[in-house]
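Incident log, structure service

09:12 report received: a user says their structure output differs between two submissions of the same chain.
09:20 pulled the input from the user's history:
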Amino acid sequence: MLFSRDIGIDLGTATTSVCIKGKGIIMREPSVVAYDVRTDEVKAVGTAAKEMIGRTPGSIVAVRPLKNGVIADFDVTAAMLKRFIKDSQKGSIFSRSRVIVSIPAGVTEVESRAVYDAVKQAGGTEVDLLEVPVAAAIGAGLPINDPTGFMIVDIGGGTTEIAIISLGGIVTAQSVRQAGDQMDEAIINYVRRKHRLVIGERTAEEIKIKLGSCLAYDGEGKMEISGRNVDESLPKSIVITASEVRDALRPVVDKIVDAIKNTLEKTPPELAADILNNGITLTGAGAELRGIAGYIAGETEFSVNVAENPADCVVLGTLKKLDEESGFDSYVFRRGKQYR
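09:34 re-ran on a clean worker, output below:
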């Protein structure tokens, strides 16, 4: 299409990444929108909005419009996408946008249609949907078009996507709502239960990044954190150790392992043999958690590899898909149905 720009979007629960054909990744922003509840006016999007969480006056609300990988607030999601698409067009002579956007493999037709409609409302003139496990596998450099089986585990913000891929398509897949957000929640609950301290999402995320692990490691540290004491409702500081954080995260990681085992049980024998040879590939920001590859390997008895730049695999796969596409159709196919 003349005067159009091809855009790829990894629409994540925690982070949205945007890439442009011929330019690469141009944007990584938190999937957060701050808006005035009285006027519905969007005040900030992305990093600026995330910094407002827990600090806004009563009339301004900072929200994450996606939950567990799907749209929870359609209008706010559309507003966020509109801002991201508009920013990606700055300095460009192109006035139209052709968009590929990633979606979880386990979403319903209604949920996938909601993503499609939101991107269209945000300014996408032609829209295609790409399932997250396929995008992640492409971004990880796996030869998914070969007649052999590969297992991809993408640990994102709201969901973990697990899929067996062969001949360019998904053979079996499972989406579980156990990922980065649930890890943060587990830390919040642990600190409240063990130390009688209330902390926020941002503090929990910082603890996860600095101390989080699945296996013991050399040089384990500790961290001083502050919050509100449950009993006295007064500010208080405590010290939390890496061992405690590991205990807090274990239930979430174990649920991911159980989902991996369940997916393996549904895998055809021939492909299971391929996965035994090829191993399991981890992608997503959650793959950067210390020791998670070794822990999954120990629990499944399969070799486990973490992809290079795991947090960017989905958007990089979308970018490669953009480079492959010579053009878009006037409709998008989604499991045999077409959206015009």
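09:41 both user submissions now match this output. Likely a transient worker issue. Closing.
09:42 reviewer note: The first strand starts at residue 4 and ends at 11. The chain has a mean pLDDT of 87.
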